[in-house]
Amino acid sequence: MTGTSPSDFAKRLDKTADDTEALLGRLLSDDILHDEIARPKRLMDAMRYSSLNGGKRLRPFLVVESAAVFGVPREAALLVGAALECIHCYSLIHDDLPAMDNSDLRRGRPTLHKKTDDATAILAGDGLLTLAFDIVTRDEIHRDANVRLLLTRALARCAGIGGMVGGQILDLAGEGRFGGNEPIDVARIQQMKTGALLRYGCIAGAILGEASQKEYQALDDYGRALGEAFQIADDLLDVEGDAAALGKPAGADAALGKTTFVTQLGIEGAKQRVRDLLARADSAVSIFGDRAAVLQAAARFVAERKN
């Protein structure tokens, strides 16, 4: 990697987080849009509680930086990133519910259902999910309606039955929630539950930039490698991490009896797998030359993060 120092990378990540925060604040305001009837205060407060004032905003950052490879206007990429972040935040609300992971803390604060109640949390998640598709279809993202269609379809498929939602039910099945002894494919679960949204952050830039098939494939390969590295790093943090730094209890996977990359590969095997994935991610975007420096730094950030 050349051209991006750790401090430069941190500044870029923080800048995108700040810009995303400001944009989400506007998107989640109390101002009623055309065709809306009302924005109920309890619902909006709950959506803001779970979406604002927290998180590294890695997924919007991937959209912004993958789009920057093609010179896409930052404002357009930020809107797509905000839509993706709405999906991510909704998924966290629902994951934390008693029927799912039953978590009390998220980002160092009470989870939404603990702060309010289960019904409000469910509806806040539903609100963020549907808002995401309102945002990603907006005219200001791209002049070409077909580009907006491709962005929307890809988001639905990465977030839906063949992506995050499907991965969540496979993960629950792996915990034995539904009886039986279904085989556990940790890599497949990861690709769907966690990796799909991270991958979208990368291919969204290619779609926005109207990339060639070769360029799209490079970002797709990068996104898949980065997504798997992210999950393995997460599994390692659950074993080795500090609860205060994580903002949630450590050891949650073991408590739920989950099969993870660490339980399958061991700690050292998992760390070696991360190194291999970093090399794969680095190689995938090498076709972009120095324009890929920030993306290469992002892969290292994912692998080395402490929370």
UniProtKB/TrEMBL annotation:
Signal peptide (from-to): none
Biological process, per Gene Ontology: terpenoid biosynthetic process
Any one GO MF annotation of this record: metal ion binding
PROSITE patterns, A to Z: POLYPRENYL_SYNTHASE_1, POLYPRENYL_SYNTHASE_2
One Pfam assignment: polyprenyl_synt
UniProt entry tagged with the keyword Disulfide bond: no
Name this polypeptide is given: Probable farnesyl diphosphate synthase
